[in-house]
Design brief:
The protein is built from two helices and eleven strands, in the order αββββββββαβββ. It is mainly beta. A hairpin with a 5-residue loop joins β1 and β2. Keywords: Hydrolase, Plasmid, Purine metabolism.
């Protein structure tokens, strides 16, 4: 059975790459960067390369807190990011540990695991300015972001919590992942 070729998804990244972001074009942008008339089929996009590693299987794992630092400025994992984990104790945060993310932007081991994961308020302090300075990004001094506090609440210590954190020298976002 013959199927028509799929049209590539239009994303801001594909438009920026083609130099067409913000032009308000009504047509479709092909993978080659050319603008096609509305309704015209676009050529099939090039296939991505094979994955070199598979996802880590999470089923059967006990309660844990993990994180993943993603450098949105470069579109890469936040390798070598220093992060300090603290727990709220009264009116202050008490330091628990300092980690440095690996080449994949993740902590070498869970931040908290099994009985170490307790209900409460936590802070993961990311050393963003130090990270960008270490990899040679020219930033104003002082930079807009120096230390970024990621604050969150563990309500059920029997669950798994994952913090994907996307950051640039000027902004960040995070959410509870899976």
């Amino acid at each position: 059975m013959n199927h028509p070729p799929e049209r590539p998804d239009l994303t801001r990244r594909s438009l920026v790459g083609a130099g067409l972001a913000g032009l308000g074009l009504g047509g479709t942008v092909a993978a080659t960067g050319t603008v096609l008339a509305q309704g015209a089929p676009a050529p099939a996009p090039a296939q991505p390369g094979a994955l070199t590693t598979g996802p880590t299987m999470q089923s059967g794992l006990g309660p844990r807190l993990t994180m993943h630092a993603i450098d949105n400025f470069h579109g890469t994992p936040g390798a070598g990011m220093v992060c300090d984990l603290s727990v709220r104790d009264g009116d202050t945060y008490r330091p628990l540990k300092t980690i440095t993310t690996g080449a994949n932007g993740r902590s070498p081991e869970p931040l908290l695991i099994d009985d170490a994961l307790k209900t409460g308020r936590y802070e993961l302090l990311m050393h963003v300015e130090e990270y960008f300075a270490r990899i040679g990004v020219a930033l104003p001094s002082p930079n807009f972001l120096g230390l970024v506090p990621i604050r969150f609440h563990i309500r059920d210590a029997s669950q798994r919590y994952h913090l994907p954190i996307l950051f640039t020298p000027w902004g960040y976002s995070y959410y509870r992942g899976s």
